[in-house]
Amino acid sequence: MAIIRIYHLYPAHLNLYGDRGNMLALCRRAEWHGIDIEVVPVEPGGRINFSCCDLLFMGGGQDSDQKLVAKDLKNHRTEMRQAVEEGMAVFAVCGSYQLLGYYYTTGRGEKIGGLEIAEFYTEAGPKRLIGNAVINCSLWNPPKTLVGFENHAGKTYLGPNLQPLGEVLVGYGNNGADKKEGAVYKNVIGTYLHGSLLPKNPWLTDNLLEKALSYRNQVFQPAQLDDSIEQQAHSSVIRLASSKRHKRRSSRV
Ligand code: GLN
Q1: How far is the CA of 129 from the centre of ligand 1 (A)?
Q2: What is the rounded average pLDDT for all residues in the chain?
Q3: Is residue 194 annotated as part of the catalytic site, yes or no?
């Protein structure tokens, strides 16, 4: 039986807007596909054995929590970067996405150093970027939509060689200006989308499971699942995000 070991980093500190639901979606979907899952929660000060980690998940966090976990993550920087280069799958949301880049400067002007895993930086802007978002995600050909909820002060700017996760159809994405959302580097996905994200975008959940398996030379053999409820949730966010009222409210933020 295929097996995936997921390291859940700092669950007590990084869990905004239902991010923990991503773990539930990964575990439940893996079970439906006949994949064994082992979850290893790690809090600051804990040991992270990257050689055993197939998929690393980190949720979003407020500036204060980001600062706290960034300090701990620094102790793991070399090992984490090496595992990423070898193909470890990483899924990082909002505050932890920001920590994968060069730095995040908070609204108070504090500079939190990042892991420098991918070429980007983040600086807080004067207003928060809040609302439901829809992106066209090019992990698939043809692209599929991803829907989620964003709430961030940070504006992220990608280096010229870094691929975004998708193109913004509704919402703000990385910085509210260049229509890019998230970033993809090797098997790493960073995104501003909370929600939680994975239950409403089951194709992304499967993509992460597939990445984690292929990293260990295991083949993803998806079961035929009935995704009608997930699809309904997905479609209802698209309807909500696309409604004129929602767009008006978001643009007032
Ligand atoms: N503190 C960060 C910001 O405001 C991240 C917030 C979050 O994870 N939602 O940009």
Answers
A1: 10
A2: 95
A3: yes
Peptide bond into 196 cis (omega under 30): yes
Q: How confident is the model at residue 1, as a pLDDT?
A: 84
The arrangement of secondary structure in 3-252, i.e. its CATH architecture, is 3-Layer(aba) Sandwich (3.40)
How far is ligand 1, taken at its centre, from the CA of residue 220, in Å?
33
Annotated catalytic residue: which of 94, 137, 152, 234?
94
State the pTM of this model: 0.96
Interval 116-132: pLDDT, tens? 999 999 999 999 999 99
Using an 8 Å Cβ cutoff, are 183 and 97 in contact?
yes
Q: Please confirm, yes or no, whether 137 is among the known catalytic residues.
A: no
Q: Which of 67, 104, 152 to mutate to test the pocket of ligand 1 (most atoms within 8 A of CB)?
A: 152
Distance (angstroms) between ligand 1 centre and the Cα of 154 equals 6
Convert the pLDDT of each residue in 183-231 to its tens digit.
Answer: 999 999 999 999 899 999 999 999 999 999 999 999 999 999 999 999 9
Which residue owns the Cα nearest ligand 1 atom 2? 95
What confidence category does residue 253 fall into, taking pLDDT thresholds of 50, 70 and 90?
Answer: very low
